[in-house]
Amino acid sequence: MPPSELKKIRDKYGGKLTLKEPYNKTKYLSVRVRGYIDLFRAFTLLAPLTVSIFMIFASIVYNKVTLTSNWWITVLHASGTIAIINGASNALNQATDVEADKISKPYRPIPLGIVKPDEAQSFALIFYLFALLRSATINPWFGFFVFLIMVFTVTYSLPPRMKQYLFINQIWIAIPRGLLGILASWSVFGDPFTPLPIIIGLIATVYLIGGMSTKDIVDSEADRRTGTRTLINTYGTKRTALMCFPFMFFPFVFIPIFISQNLLPEYLLPLTLTVIPSFLILILMIKPIESKTLENVHAWSIMYIQYIIFAIVFSLLVIFQDIIFT
User: In this structure, are residues 111 and 20 in contact, taking their beta carbons and an 8 Å threshold?
Assistant: First the structure.
């Protein structure tokens, strides 16, 4: 693409295409507005949005739900709420991690002085409240799970600030993004307290306990200086990769066991194959390469992509089980 055309695209989308590019004033978005948008960290919203949508689709088919004419509005309404919570937690995390971001992510809007920390925190809390109010209009169980997700994500960044505690920080971020997010999505049209969504949610949670360590690679030194203990800055990247790999491997390998115990339906056996990207993540963690466009190393990106693939494959197997296994 010619540089002139690329500049036009940048100008249209707020002066830059990626978070690492410098802020520029544009015709349509001021630098300050673009800074507020960047607090959401759009790439990280892709996983919760996509996972939620496909989990809801699977729930509709699995539970043989009779749909109304505006069912798709409910789907977008619920999945959008999950994404908003994730965006709010991203903003809150940046508001409380200013000193660390000055070291490892100085291109973010708060270290650059475009958005103030207290403004970002207020921005996050407003969207938390907005998401909670939205969730209450869907059904009580969805609202309950959204509230639990909020509790986990808020206490991850604010006191008691679970982010600073070794091992606990991995679990604390995996539960809302795995189990609670999946149960919330399933509850839109189905009963979340049945074996299928619970086991799928637990598989996702265990996977994320290991996979979320990829996000700490770039922040290793910054976390150490600011008093946050992570697996990366405690045990090193290579040892952490080896410690976390079982969490990214065995949940998928256990799927045949769950099937043999009649805890999962037999048609989900191909879901085991979604373990394959875990090997790539292991390799990329041992020899981390930082992305030139996204905020972290390539292993972090693959981790999110693998989670999305897991949700899509699960949904397709549920939806097309009769076609695939006849």
Answer: no
List C-alpha distances in Å: 110 to 32, 37, 115, 236, 273.
10, 12, 5, 28, 41
Cα 202–Cα 129–Cα 16 angle in degrees, nearest 5: 85
Tokens of 176: 């809302």
Q: Quickly state the pLDDT bin for 19 (edges 50, 70, 90).
A: confident
Which of the two residues, 150 and 325, has the higher pLDDT score? Answer: 150
For 221, the token pair is: 């030194």
The whole-chain average pLDDT of the chain stands at 93
Please state, for a pLDDT cut of 90, what percent of the chain lies above it: 83
Domains and CATH numbers, the chain: 1-38 (no CATH), 39-324 (1.10.600)
Total residues found in the chain within this entry: 326
Side chain identity, residue 6: L
**Residue range 206-212: mean pLDDT, rounded:** 97
Q: 92-149: per-residue pLDDT in tens?
A: 999 999 999 999 999 999 999 999 999 999 999 999 999 999 999 999 999 999 999 9
Nearest to residue 300, comparing CAs of 258, 241, 252? 241
Which of 46, 29, 211, 180 minimizes the C-alpha distance to 114? Answer: 29
Give the separation between CA 212 and CA 216, rounded to whole angstroms: 8
Find out whether 287 and 27 touch, Cβ atoms under 8 Å: no
Q: Write the DSSP assignment of 73-138 as a string of letters.
A: HHHHHHHHHHHHHHHHHHHHHHHH-HHHHHHH-TTSTTTTTSS-HHHHHHHHHHHHHHHHHHHHTT
Torsion sign across C-alpha atoms 250, 150, 70, 67:
positive
Closest CA to 211 of 234, 232, 185, 235: 232
pLDDT in tens, 248-301: 999 999 999 999 999 999 999 999 999 999 999 999 999 888 888 888 899 999
Residue linked to tokens 């994404």: 83
